[in-house]
Amino acid sequence: MTETTCFKLSIENHIAHIVLNRPKAFNAMPRAFWNELPALVHEINDCAKARVIVLSSTGKHFTAGMDISVFTDGESINAEGADQYVRAEAFRHFVKLLQDSFSCLDDARMPVLAAIQGGCIGAGVDMTSACDIRYCTEDSFFQIAEINIGMTADVGTFPRLNKLIPEGWLRELAYTGARLPAEKAKAIGLVNEVFPNQAAMMSHVFKIASEIAAKSPVAIAGSKRMANYARDHSIADGLDYIATWQAGMFAPPHMMEAFAAKAQKRAPIFPIWRL
Question: How far apart are CA 211 and CA 206, in angstroms?
Fold first, then answer.
């Protein structure tokens, strides 16, 4: 299993639990974070180690966002003396690498459920926007904080959040850097539910994760792929794609097992994912 400094990982009952584990630093995201997260997700995804991923955190805040060390540790991409065009291209490549660190959540075969407490700030909004479903506690807030330090959010906020909440709300949050409180986040559709505390939230999230993990992995993977494809394409394209998917992935044996398990009042047994 991938060694990490920013996370804890456990896998049980087909559920992978990835926990941000730098509470003293408010789970800010140093350089190691951006390498470790995709490594964990790719290992879970590529090796079929789970059917659902739960992403949660420790301490007062879910995450304070990107750590300034991302830009100061190691060789600077803005080194003096570098040609401005070389520097610009290198910076673009660097931002793409950061974006890919969260795109792995969107691309994973299995759903990713985010459980958020306290502040979800800056890159935290980028990360949770790439998850399938979000839940939060009453003390949570979301903040596109980049505007407050003179920059434009660039790791996924705009393309993803624009699909999750009304455009007017996205623009207000992005232009002002204001905090979006938990109840308003629920009202505009960013989170599915708000809980009084983290314990209640985690209990609910693992209940949902267990329900998902009990379903056919192929059908769940197909459902996620269809939801993502429909989000990014026209209705006609989405209908065509699901027809093509079913031509190859329609699984009568899995359906018969689901029917049999229900009739026999037992948990269904589906084939394990393989590479």
Answer: 8
